[in-house]
Specification:
- The protein is of the alpha/beta class and about 450 residues long.
- It is about 40% helix and about 20% strand.
- The protein folds into four domains: about 150 residues, 3-Layer(aba) Sandwich (Rossmann fold), CATH 3.40.50; about 110 residues, Transcription Regulator spoIIAA, CATH 3.30.750.210; about 110 residues, 2-Layer Sandwich (Transcription Regulator spoIIAA), CATH 3.30.750; about 55 residues, OB fold (Dihydrolipoamide Acetyltransferase, E2P).
- The strands form five sheets. It has a six-stranded parallel sheet with strand order 2-1-3-4-5-6, sandwiched between helices. It has a five-stranded mixed barrel with strand order 15-16-17-19-18.
- Strand 1, helix 2 and strand 2 form a beta-alpha-beta unit.
- The longest helix has 24 residues.
- The chain is globular and about 60 Å long.
- It binds S-adenosyl-L-homocysteine (SAH), iron/sulfur cluster and FE3-S4 cluster.
Length: about 450
């Protein structure tokens, strides 16, 4: 198999660079933008760099190699990258560090042009299809000292056995499929991540069994369309959930992002019967208006979405939903927006990730003539936010007095004297307790609702 050979070649480059770097105490800095898939890719970048004798630093100023793993889902992600790149120029001059840029944004032609024209001090440009070749690219740069551009515009392949350095000791992300075939009219992902391709079930199960042996308790399955996972004839997402559910040591299974159109009955039944699958489902709505959904190419209507939610609520007791919503899609009328508010009221989401529509070059929606003025987009966004916050506050009240199983992540970000963890339904809970509970699952009685998080006591 060619992919296997390609990884073998990269392992040789890893050895070569490792030797070159021996005893030099070299450091790397990585900044990840974007979604969990990018986070997981960054864990692989870190894995390769650490095998090449680079040590992680949180400070770009003392890094010998600086990596940006980029996102282009919305315009603000681009602004962030170019701002950061400007800051790196001085560091590059002072330290002669290597600057490498990869991820979704470098898959866009206009970005490569801008990088080459305005940021000539970038040494390596790699894309989503060439991430595994980082060792080769670093090796060639060290040898020849000439700028490297390694971006492919292809459907994409699957590479196994890339070294990985995980961010967490109990929670692990596992990418099960990559790419997207849906071409929602607003979205850049299909253009930068290629077509859908699924890993083999045996490779996924082997990885998760190893994670369980290493003490991991929670698995997050990742894919742009996780529930259209295709593991071969007679093996789809429901089979995968059932098989992962059997792995000893794994206590929680989550997945993002599914597409409503792929929630077949077998997947719903598997969620219902697998006790480790968390009963909070991320179900991206995008819009509550059938007209807008059609223009978005989402392949479901308002009524179909609501009846899917009803079906799942009927089959799975205590199920909760989270979602993604875009406001201000081209042509969205007041009535369309009211439909979105209506669905939000009816479903009663546990969490809503809200986005203002952002034009993406090359997508169908970017060429639509009826773009919505910025002020209207913001007005609608604020109205939606108000409704969502009210709902979340009311929903959280239901937790008060209940006992929840909490996986403790570590000390709380805002108060180092407290611990923070997550319920099965993914709510953040802050607890005053001893550090010995970190990475454990404990029973916690919920005492207070602070809207964005809950407070509780270990019992
Ligand atoms: N594959 C996932 C989503 C990936 S992107 C899915 O289908 O749900 C994450 C979210 O970003 C999307 O759900 C959408 O709400 C938002 N998004 C994508 N493109 C956008 C755009 N052009 N403007 C604003 N938000 C966008
Ligand atoms: Fe983008 Fe739609 Fe694919 Fe999600 S399903 S990645 S929103 S095109
Ligand atoms: Fe961004 Fe790429 Fe993810 S565009 S949201 S990092 S798939």
């Amino acid at each position: 198999m060619i992919e296997k050979e390609e990884i073998k070649i990269q392992k040789e480059y890893i050895k070569k660079v490792k030797k070159l770097n021996e005893g030099k105490n070299l450091k790397y800095y990585i900044l990840t933008m974007g979604c969990s898939l990018n986070e997981n890719d960054s864990e692989k970048i870190c894995g390769m760099l650490e095998e090449m004798n680079y040590i992680k630093t949180e400070e770009p100023t003392n890094a010998n190699i600086i990596i940006f793993n980029t996102c282009c889902i919305r315009e603000n992600a681009e602004d962030k990258l170019f701002g950061k790149l400007g800051e790196m120029k001085k560091i590059k001059i002072d330290n002669n560090s290597i600057i490498a840029i990869g991820g979704c944004m470098t898959q866009e032609k206009h970005i490569i042009e801008k990088l080459n024209k305005s940021y000539p001090y970038v040494d390596i440009i790699f894309g989503t299809h060439t991430l595994h070749k980082l060792p080769e690219n670093i090796s060639k740069l060290l040898e020849n000292n000439t700028k490297i551009e390694d971006v492919l515009d292809i459907d994409g392949k699957i590479y196994e056995d890339i070294p990985i350095k995980r961010n967490d000791a109990v929670k692990a992300s596992v990418t099960i499929m990559n790419g997207c075939n849906n071409f929602c009219s607003y979205c850049i992902v299909p253009y930068v991540r290629g077509r859908e391709r699924s890993r083999k079930p045996e490779d996924i199960l082997k990885e998760i069994k190893k994670l369980a042996e290493d003490g991991y308790k929670e698995i997050m399955l990742l894919g742009q369309n996780v529930n259209s996972y295709n593991g071969g004839i007679e093996y789809n997402f429901s089979n995968l959930l059932i098989d992962i559910n059997k792995i000893n040591g794994i206590e929680r299974i989550r997945f993002i992002s599914p597409h409503p159109k792929d929630f077949t009955d077998d997947v719903i039944d598997a969620i219902a019967k697998c006790e480790k699958v968390c009963k909070v489902i991320h179900l991206p709505l995008q819009s509550g208006s059938t007209n807008v959904l059609k223009a978005m190419n989402r392949k479901y209507t308002k009524e179909q979405y609501l009846s899917l939610v009803k079906k799942m609520k009927d089959k799975i007791p205590n199920i909760a939903f989270t979602t993604d919503i875009i406001v201000g899609f081209p042509g969205e009328t007041e009535k369309d927006f009211k439909d979105t508010l209506d669905v939000v009221k009816k479903v009663n989401f546990d969490q809503v990730f809200m986005f203002i529509y952002s034009r993406r070059v090359g997508t169908v929606a970017d060429k639509m003539e009826n773009q919505i003025p910025e002020e209207i987009k913001h007005e609608r966004f604020n109205k939606l936010k108000e409704l969502v916050e009210k709902q979340i506050e009311e929903n959280n009240n239901k937790y008060i007095g209940t006992v929840q199983k909490i996986l403790i992540d570590g000390t709380s970000k805002t108060n180092k004297n407290t611990l923070s963890g997550r319920t099965d339904s993914n709510k953040i809970v802050v607890i005053e307790a001893d550090n010995k509970y970190i990475n454990q699952i404990v029973n916690v009685k919920i005492t207070e609702n602070c809207i964005w998080y809950l407070k509780g006591k270990i019992i």
